[in-house]
Design a protein that fits this description.
Distance between the termini: 16 Å
Helix content: 25-40%
Strand order of the largest sheet: 1-2-3-4-5-7-6
Number of helices: 5
Structural class: alpha+beta
Number of strands: 7
Radius of gyration: 16 Å
Order of helices and strands: EHHEEEHEHEEH
CATH superfamily: Gcn5-related N-acetyltransferase (GNAT)
Length: 170
Amino acid sequence: MTDVTLRPMARALLHEYYRGFRMDSAIFADMSRYREYVYSPEVVDAYFDRLAAAEDRVDFLVMLGERPIGEVALKRVDRAAGTCELAIHLQNDTVKNRGYGTRAEQLAVACAFAEMGMKAVLADAVAKNLRSRRVLEKVGFRQVGEDGIFVCYRLERADWERKNPIGGEV
């Protein structure tokens, strides 16, 4: 398997990612919001500009070799509290169920703890999205709440370091 890496967000690669993007109905809690995705260069440029201007997040492209297959973000970064929230989207079904999302989440969490000094990483998943929930649990997150629509997770730095010593192999 070609290794999955994270690369800082770049406009051209974001366009490449979104040209192959397909919406996944499993990510929607409210199916009335589900619509077929249509690539628009103007929309992707505006999205990139919003990400680049945001001060409370760090965004990466998930790369499979030289090909962008996903995006992962550490958002709502609260340096005072030492927390951030993990978010991930993979491009389409051809890159799902292959371990790529798990690896990307592991790398993002390692960045949050080792490079950003976070104390905990938060995440949520739509309750019906069992695939996302399993990946979060595989990475080490533990469920801390549920509201009927979303399941909330938390991963403490100390728990991560017990299984993945900082400086060791992730």
